[in-house]
Amino acid sequence: MAHREGIVATRETNRGHMALITSRENRWLKRFRAALAGERDDDGIAGVEGVRLVEAALGSRLPVEALLVSESGARHLSRLAPVLNSAVPVLRTSDKLFSGVADTQTPQGIAALVRLRLATIENLLSGTPLLVAMVSVQDPGNVGTIVRAAEAFGATGAAACAAGGVGTADPFGPKALRASAGSALRLPIVAGVSATILLAQLRMFQVRVYAAVADAVEEDSKNKSSGATSSLLRPWDIDWKSPAAILIGNEGSGLPGDVVRASDARVYIPQAAATTPVGIESLNAAMAASVLLYEAMRQRNAAGQRP
Secondary structure of 55-102 in the HEC alphabet? Predict the structure, then answer.
């Protein structure tokens, strides 16, 4: 029997309730359309698309509100079966209707609505914290890659901060989620905090703060002209076994001067000497974060502080 809102059939299976959606005005399709476009309501629901991200969501222990599967995407259900809870509604629709809600150009025909569990700063500071704080990092791809590196190299959490009126791209937005390869669904993340508040909290919890800067000579010149006295260190000069936070700045302008001056030390990554007049550009935000996080993991592993 036909059902209103374009749901024409519902049946019970060993994988829970399955419904067939035939109308683009269906309320579930509207929810998926908004979530996959990066919109979030007060419930903190995010949309994830593609078999790998959906698999990560189902395996993350976050509540999954519903699964949406197109005709061609149904082939992925067997792969997801080991992590698909029987209580999760599985909604089926046509490839055409799915493409109307998808955020990608070549959709894989499967998506999920996930209820995020946002962390607090206090959540990130238990034990011996190793945090990466993104300050005005605006490229979602960089944000997602930094979050992915943070999980891979044993960081205890990440923060997306604003400074000087410039925020950081949403780590749970579609592009950042894809770049994180699901890490944003597992790593504790604080979003929307100001750099000033974060620095005050880190100081209160006696976490040493290291501001990542691009060039040793240029930064020393800036430091002297501004009257700041914080040390300029290489990654291996730092004791990463102690509670630590890494500040990563904007792709073009780096960290604001007041944020750098509020840090305990500055850290730069030495590069090979230039072999041409043009020289080598500094590492981008995601690459720099990855190098610093790897050195922190190396030291912690050597000391038996394995993540």
Answer: HHHHCCCCCEEEEEEECHHHHHHHHHHHHCCCCCCEEEECHHHHHHHC
